[in-house]
Amino acid sequence: MYLEPKLKYSHSNTIADFGDACSAILPLAADQHLTPSLQIADTLLGGAISAAIASGDLTGKLKNQHLFLNSTSGPKRILVVGTGASEKLNDSKCRQLHKAAWSALKANPGQRVHNELCLAQSSSLNQADQTRLAIETLTKSQYSFDQFKSKSQDHNEAPAKADMVIVAPEAEGQLKQSIATAAAMDMCRDLGNLPGNICTPSYLAEQAIAMAATSPKVQADIIEEDSMAELGMHCLLSVGKGSNEASKLIILKYQGAAEATAPHVLVGKGITFDTGGISLKPGASMDEMKYDMCGAASVLAAMQAVIDMALPVNVVAIVASAENMPAGNATKPGDIVTTMSGKTVEILNTDAEGRLVLCDALTYAERFNPASVVDVATLTGACIIALGHHTSAVLSNDDEFAQELMATGKQAFDTAWQLPIGDAYQEQLSSNFADMANIGGRPAGTITAACFLARFAESYKWAHIDIAGTAWTSGKAKGATGRCVPLLVQHLINQA
Ligand code: BES
Ligand code: MN
Ligand code: ZN
Predict the structure, then answer these.
(1) Strands (E), 85-224
(2) If you average pLDDT over every residue of the chain, what do you get?
(3) Nearest bound ligand to the CA of residue 428
């Protein structure tokens, strides 16, 4: 595996007897019914759990918790954590309770090499979904990005080789998928958090080459600027023109099915830094524009999960990568370029650069005769206005495909919501001087951006996912989120 999660997850079919566990995490529902695992723990603790319920200290309300230290046999620590009403447990509550439980254990120094996690008995959230959410939440809780801090950080976290046994008799099949997804989200976070002076287009290309080296089923091809020019990708080339970093078109092919099987293609926006170019962005928070390659990161990470799971499906990842900089030779507003498709574009705003790199990548995708194409991009600020930070936008030339991806997002607890694209919006892109302009004015910015892309995706089933709002958290917890890796991984699993 490319990135080892700091917690090693495994699975147990039987009710926990807590053999040699150091810590046990036990959910307690609001009805305070003692599950078989809670009964065993209560006996080990000489009735302390029942006593805490009787005294009102343990209520079973969401996140209400108590850590029992145990000096008899069995685990040294027994953490009982409330889930709320068992028939009202949902994904958000499930994430909250695992986050709270793990930070309570982390706050308690001492050996935590071997941990056991029991799942809630719930009519509203099955064990497979709880397993998925637990592994994602615990992995996120363990994530840190401190490779550029010179002093080693005291995270007071689990030792490097800590393991977490998930007691889930009905959910063994979910484990492998969830571990691969959580590890891929860590990879996506790392790529998104890396600064623009390290994570350049060349760096992304090196990551793809390194991934290909790990498996005979994977092949990486890097298309350099001179080959792009030969292919007629002048639109992609126009974006990196003012940068000293060479643009790269990265092709990563995974063959898990028969060679003749049409591949599912993922295309990622890989702007490793977006200054806006000559249409320069304001200075405040510009540092965050290092995350403008999170589409590329989520596509590469999903590919890594596919490799880890050895999925029987053919996948092609295409990353269009450039750095958008102002310079004496940079593209200017009003410049007209010819795309690989032959269509011409008047670049009215150099800050609408994502669509300019993606359009040539979408034309390139035609050569794979794809079963489907999904592109992922931090494409528009307007998407944050429309959907905020919780839901990605999905737009497609095929309504059924959009519905399918929304369902996939729901299945993966990585939600996306469809916005319309239609001819009425296409008119906003008209240009006096070229086939189209690269901007459509202020109204419906996410939709007109997708309308631009749709013009280059006419020959196959295509969807576009805008992750401008979901890929990044600002403020105190600033950093990349790993979205929409779960959706992409589930999408590919569903095709296998
Ligand atoms: N990378 C940005 C979009 C973005 C903005 C992502 C904020 C995440 C947070 C994109 O390249 C961009 O600048 N889009 C412009 C388009 C406009 C000029 C039509 C935007 O959204 O303002
Ligand atoms: Mn931009
Ligand atoms: Zn951008």
Answers:
(1) 114-118, 163-167, 218-223
(2) 94
(3) 1
